[in-house]
Every structure is written in structure tokens, then in C-alpha cells.
Amino acid sequence: MRQEEFEKRYQTLWNKFEQAINVLTRFKKKNxxxxxxxxxxxxxxxxxxxxxxxxRERQYSPHLINQLESFAFQGHQLLYRKRLGVFNRVYQFILxxxxxxxxxxxxxxxxxxLLFYLPALAIFGFTLLFPExxxxxxxxxxVARIESMYDPALDKIGRERQADxxxxxxxxxIRNNIGIAxxxxxxxxxxTIGTQFFLIFNGTFFGGVSAHIINIGYQETFYSFVAGxxxxxxxxxxxxxxxxxxxxxxxxxxGCFSRKQALINAGRRSMSLVxxxxxxxxxxxxxxxxxxxxxxxxxxxxxxxxxxxxLAILSYxxxxxxxxxxxxxxx
Length: 331
Fold this sequence. Notes:
It is built from 13 helices and no strands. The chain has 331 residues and is mostly helical. Helix 8 (166-186) crosses helix 9, helix 9 (193-215) packs antiparallel against helix 10 and helix 10 packs antiparallel against helix 11. The longest helix is centred in the last third of the chain and has 34 residues, at 219-252. The chain starts with a helix and ends with a helix.
């Protein structure tokens, strides 16, 4: 669609939204409780965000993009900071913002997934065929520690020190997961090279260790341990990598913007993925600390919980927040 047609289609919405901004900014806080006005404003705000995403993707004129960014920023200020509290903002992000951001930035998510899972699968197969390969991928001391963590005789699996409490491990997993996510995201500034390295490295490590565990016969304890939190942890790593790739691509191909402005635009878009990654990794750390290491439940129970986690993640990203997007498409 040409820019002229795009502007003609949505100009009425933009004029209406601008008028709503002018009205709401003159209201005192106690008068912003008008439910009908705020509900309409919220719907219009989501459509403005959709228009902004389309304008950026199609590389319309900087003037139009700046105008839509201004509307989106002012709308965010009014809707989320003045009206909604912290919990409502989090709710809106989880229900609408994150799944929509993943679908809008799907190409980066798919690329990050391939960079992570393809090396993991390749190394998994090679390590099954050539067990000694694990010592070329992972330090022998690390291999020994991993083997000791998943010994079937342990009361608590997945831990180097059995004396550590669940809460201590929760903090450790948060630090470890967030560290990996930050590396994957920040590495993108090096024209995506850093992000590609960390995605491939972590995928290779995971694939090699997974195969080595089968080779030594500890698969029951290992896979029952990782089943519960793997969907959240691996998806969080992929999303942080997708955000990093987007930052790096702005450096490589800024399009009609200056490189600085392209980075700013990419940073704004990718932050939804970063927040989503941190949210998923927090869930992963909680599940890993308080559920995965627990040997009270049967192996099959843990497998079913793991399958449910993957189905929930996939359903969430493909289905959540669809209603508002379908409304946009129909107009």
C-alpha cells in the first residue's frame, strides 16, 4: 500500500486520537474516571500502535513515523501512567503487548530460533554418535559437575550443592538466566555478531550436554528436570536474541533513517521482546527452583507438565491478543 492510501485510510482515526489527547490532557486526575472515554481511547491507542508498526515496516516518510510515534508516546503516557497502575500495565503487556510484539517481529524471532535450535540439534546428533565430542565442546571439569548434578541417587537433582535451599537456587537461576539473556541482547550492537555467537554457543552447549546425558544413562533425571522449565527458559533466550538481532540489523541496514535514529527505533520496538524475555526467564527460574528439582513427583508427571508448558507458550504467542489485531485488519 502506498503512503497516500495509508494516510487516507487512517487519517480519521489519527484526527480522533489527537482530539482525545487534547481533551484528556486538560482533565484533572479525578475526571479521568470516565470509563467509556477511556475504553475508546485504549482501543484507539492500540490501533495507533498498529499503524506505527506498519509505517515502520513499510519505511514510510520520517515525518509520518515521527507523528505516529508522538501519538503513541502521548497515548502511552495518558493511558498507562495516569490511569493504570503497575499491575494493570503488566496485565495489559502480558495480555496484548508481548504476543503482538512477537508476531509483529516474527522474522527476527524465527531467525533467532534457527540460530539456537539448529546448532543444538546438530551437536546433539553428533554427540550421540561420537560420545567423546562432548570433551571438545565442554570443559572436562564442567562435564564432571554436570554428571554429578543429575546422578539418579540424589535427593535434589540439578544442583551442585545439595545443601542449597530452593530460595537460594531461585536467586541463582535468576542471575544465570538474566545474564545469558543480556549477553544475547547486548551482543546485537556489534552488527548482530555478538547475538549470533551467544545463540549458537548456548544452543551448542545445550545440545551437547543433552546428548551426553543419554550416553551415560542419566536421561530420566535430566529430562524430567528440564521438562518443566525448558519452554520458558529457551523461549526467553530466543526472544532476547531476537531483540539483539533487531538492534544489530538497524546498524547494518538503517534504511531511510540515520543510523542513530534507526537504532532508536529498533530499540523501542525490541524492548517488548526484552521485557518478555525477562518475564519468561523469571517464570523459568521459579519453576526450576521449586518444581524441577523436586523428586516427589513421578517422571511422567513432570513430562506432562513440560508438554503443557510448551503448548501454553505456543498457544499464547499464536492466539493471545488476536482480537484487537483482527479489528485493525478489518478497517
